[in-house]
Amino acid sequence: MRFHVNRDVFSEAVSFVVKLLPQRNPQPILAGVLIEASDAGLSLAAFDYEASARTVIEATVDDPGTILVHGRLLSEIASRLPNAPIQVEVDEDGGIVLTCGSARFTLASMPVAEYPAIPEVSGESGVVPGEDFATAIAQVAFAASRDDVTPVLTGVQLEVSGTQLSLVATDRYRVALREIPWDGGGTASEESTAALVPARTLTEVGKTFAHGGDLSISFSGSGDREIIAFSAGNRTVTSLLIKGNFPPVRRLFPEQTEHHAVVNTADFVEAVRRVALVLDRSAPLRFTFTADSVSMDASGTEQARASESVDATLSGDDVTLGLNPQYLIESLSAVRSEFVRITFTSSENANKLSPVLITPQTSVDKAGADSFKYLLQPNLLLR
Questions:
Q1: Which domain holds residue 354?
Q2: Are residues 187 and 155 part of one domain?
Q3: Alpha helical stretches, state H, 161-234
Q4: Cβ neighbourhood burial of 31 (10 Å; 0-12, 13-18, 19+)
Q5: Tens of pLDDT along 113-168?
Q6: DSSP states of 252-263 as a string?
């Protein structure tokens, strides 16, 4: 096998396919990148039984063939090569020789026959704007759990209903929801479709396809091998879905109430960051909402204390509650509007703390679109 390819194009392609591979793989064969050279060009793919990435690039193929080479090593080499065309060929001993300008590398080949087949998806599909999808992922994925004890909470639930795609994530203490338009190609079904995608994989998908125009999403498979595919241009990423029932968290979102506060988002974030500096890592921050401000008070270790207030507009009675400052900051960063509305919900159980609902607010007196919602459970405050 022998081919010639543009250095920048090749480096970018290798970097893309190895991005989803784990740093340490229990099966050495899965650390490889499968490269197929044919008349159609150069296909590069990586797969670890959970996620796969595949792309096709232009190349001059002198001798078609297939090779398997260590992915991360190849990516590091390709990114540091001089600005010259790359030639890759297989030598007489079966080694892989890469030449670029005066640089020459000889790499060990891996057994192609032992590499698993790259998943193909041909099921129900639709299209979403790539930039909107990437934004939605960034607004939701952080709320997924990082604890593998409950696998279903480590994913983001994608739900297709009519002309709408919803992304939902929760770790039991908070829930993030974002909705974007879905184009099913005129084949919208009355039945909803759901897929629970690992948050880590989905985050990489968002970064990869953020600026790639329209993104095609396909659902396929059955039983233990249900997968989802994301495609745009010459790139495709697939992911094995998480098995299990995602909790019905949508019903936790209350109807909007008139008891709410409106705060400048940027001012609020900075104030929370400053005051939280004196807190122990797991301690809540005390918030007091009044008619014209929200004040924050914190007591930390070694008698450290901090307090600050920010202008706010409150509709309803004064409120004092404790919130996890990091969870609050993450939600405020996801709001992406100049002002934020914090709605205080009520519960039929007087002894139970009611969550706060965080939504965008375009101005002090005008609510934003409710396509993004974030529900945060308060913490008990010690006297």
A1: 253-376
A2: yes
A3: 199-209
A4: buried
A5: 999 999 887 777 899 999 999 999 999 999 999 988 899 999 999 999 989 999 99
A6: GPPPP-S-EEEE
